[in-house]
Amino acid sequence: MKRITLASLCVLLSYISSWARAEDLIEFRYTPVARAQVAIWVEDAAGNFVATVALTEAVAFRGIGNRPGASQMNSGYRWPYGRREGVLPVWAHRRAAAPGAKQFPRVIFQSRIEGKAARGPADPSDQSPDPYYCLSFQNKRSKRDQLDAVSCASMLTSDKGRYITESDIAAGYIEPYEQMGGVGEMRPLPLHSVYPPRMDVPRCLDKGCVDSPDLERFATDAREVMPEIDTVTRATALGDAPQQILFTVPERWSAGDYIAYIEVNVEGDYNEHWNDITFPTPVNPSELWDEFAIAYGYPYRGQPSVVFRVPFELGNGVGEESATSEAAGRSSWEHWRDNYGELEAMSDARALSDNEGSGVDRLRRDANGSRFVVAVRDSATKPPDPTIGAVEALTLATHPDELHSHAWVTMQLRAPQSERPLFGYEVRIAEAPITDEASFVREGRPAKTATSGTEGATALTLPANTPAGGLITTTIGDLAAQTHYYVAVRAINDMNEHGPLAVAEITTTKRSFATVSPCFIATAAYGTPLAAEIGVLRQFRDRHLANNTFGRWLISAYYKLGPYAARTIERHESLRALTRALLTKLVAGLDPSR
User: Fold this and answer.
1) Nearest alpha-carbon partner for 67 in 228, 214, 250, 186
2) 35 touches 236 (CB < 8 A)
3) Do 164 and 191 meet the contact criterion of CB atoms below 8 Å apart?
4) Cα radius of gyration rounded to whole Å, the chain
5) Exposure of 590 by Cβ count < 10 A (0-12 exposed, 13-18 middle, 19+ buried)?
6) What are the distances in angstroms from CA 322 to CA 300, 373, 437, 561?
7) Which of 23, 357, 434, 457 could cross-link 488 (Cys pair, CB 3.0–4.6 Å)?
8) What's domain 392-507's superfamily in CATH?
9) Nearest Cα residue to 191 out of 308, 107, 276
C-alpha cells in the first residue's frame, strides 16, 4: 500500500474543497432608494475582478453610460442623450481592467455635435422612432423637481448614434466641456468606453428612418465584450423594497477569501458640495451647446456613486453571514479627471451625506443597522437533490382599463409544487419567441410593474409565499402599443434551482389616447419635438397667442384637432414633406433671422 505524502494529501484536500463548494450559494441583501442604479460584483482577496453578479437594466440594456451626447449634458426622466460616465464607474473600470476583458466601442451622434440635443434645420435627418426614451418636452416638466409627475405620453424620435472611428479620432472629434468657473473647452473623445451601448433597439429600415448600420451591431458587440450581460441584467428596484439576490458559485472558483462590492448611484442626488449651483448646466463653449441642451432637463451631477464592500469566505464547510453599514468610498462622475473610476476615500471635506435617502443612505439600514449583507451557504450545509415544478395555468389578458391597455397586461398563474421553499419568480418578456433557457435569457428582459406612480416602472416581484396551487394575479407594464409579446415565468427555490418555463403570448392594444407634444402637427412633420423650427412656433404661441382671448381660443381648438391631423400626417411621407415646406415658410415669417 502506497504511503500518502503530505503533498499528495494537500492536493487531495484542495480537490475535495473545490468539489465541496462547487455549488455554494451566496445571497446578497440590500434595500435601495427609488431610482437607484446598482452594480454588484465579486473580487478575490488580491483585488482581481472575478464576476459581475447584478447590473441595473438602465446601464446594461438601455446604455445610459455609452450613448450620443456630451457627458455634461442635462438629464431628465428618460432623457435620451448624454453619456452618464459617472453612473457606476468603479464597477465599469474594474470589469474593464480584468485579465482578458475588453472595452466597448464608443457611441456618438451620427452627424450633429455632441452638445446639440436638437436637429438643426440644415442638418440631415438622423432619427427614428424610439420605443423607450420619451422625455416630456414641456420645459417645466423636464426639471428635477418634476420627475415624479412625468409620464411618457408620446413616442420620441431619437438619434441612436454610431460608433466613433479611427478617422474621427484622427480628425480631432470632440465634445464640449465646461470647467469649474465656466471656462469652456473642447475635449477629444477616446475610441472606447467602459460601458455597454444600448441593446434594446433594432435598426429601423422603414422609409423616413435614418439609423446608422452600426446600430445592428450594438447588442452583438455588447455580448461579445461582456457575455454574461443578459444573465446579470436586473430591472431598477422599487424604492425602499428589500432586495435579495441568489448567486450560485461557479465550479471554477477556488475556496478562499473574496470581497463583494455594491455600487449605487442616483442622478441629481444633491448636497451642499454637489448640486446644481456648484455643477450647473454647462453653457460654454457657447457655440457648441444648443438651446434644448441648456434650457431643458436639469444638471444631473449630484453626489457621485457610493461603494460598499463586504469580505467573505468560500469553502469553510459552515457558511457565514457578513455585512457592512459603512461606505468603502466613492468615485467621481467626472470623466476627465485623472482618478476617474478609482475608489476614493470618504475622508475629505466633500463628504457624501447620509441624509434620508441621500448619499450613503441610498442603501437603507436593515433591522441590524447593516446596509449590505452577504450570506454564504456552503455546499456542506445544503440538503441534496431539491426539486421544483413549473408554474401552472399561466394566462395573459388585455388590461380592463382601456387608457392603459396599450402598455399594461394582466397576468395570472398558479404557484408550483416545490419540495423546498420558494425564493421567488423570474418573469421575462420578449418580442421574439421564448422557447428554452437560452432564448429566455437572451431575448427576454426583466418584466416591469404597471404604474403611473412616482418612479415609473420598476422590477416586477411576485409573492414567494403563495402555497402550491394558489392563484397569483399581477399586472405587467412598460409595454409598447400594438406589439406582440411572449411572457415566460419560472419559479426559483431557496437552492437557486429553476423550475421549467411556462410561456404565454399576447398583443397589446392600440393606444386610445395620447397627451402629445403641444406642437402636434409640427412634431409629426419634423419627426421630433426637438426640431429648431418647433421652438419658434412654441415661442410664438407663448408670447403672442396665449396673451389674448382669440389666441387662447385658437390654442384650445388646436389642442382638440391637432392630434387627429398629426396622426394622419405622420403616416404619409408626402404629407410630412408638404407640411414641413409650409411650416418652414411660416417659421421664416415669424423669425426673419432664419
Assistant:
1) 214
2) yes
3) yes
4) 26
5) middle
6) 34, 6, 32, 62
7) 434
8) Immunoglobulins (2.60.40.10)
9) 107
pTM of the shown model: 0.83
- Is the pLDDT at 302 greater than 90, yes or no? yes
Burial of 554 (0-12, 13-18, 19+ CB in 10 A): middle
Instruction: Tell whether the torsion through CA atoms of 520, 521, 527 and 529 is positive or negative.
Output: negative
| 3-state SS, residue 27 | strand
Question: Exposure of 46 by Cβ count < 10 A (0-12 exposed, 13-18 middle, 19+ buried)?
Answer: exposed
Q: pLDDT by residue (tens digit) across 496-515?
A: 999 999 999 999 998 765 44
Residue among 141, 37, 25 nearest 515 (CA): 141
pLDDT of 114 > 60? The answer is yes
Residues 587 and 583: their CA atoms lie apart, in Å, by 6
> Do the strands 162-163 and 49-56 form a parallel or antiparallel pair, or are they unpaired?
unpaired
Strand order in the sheet with 392-398: 392-398, 409-414, 471-477, 448-449
Bond before 131 cis per omega within 30 degrees: no
Q: Is pLDDT of 264 > 70?
A: yes
Q: Check residues 149 and 347 and name the one with the higher pLDDT.
A: 347
DSSP 551: H
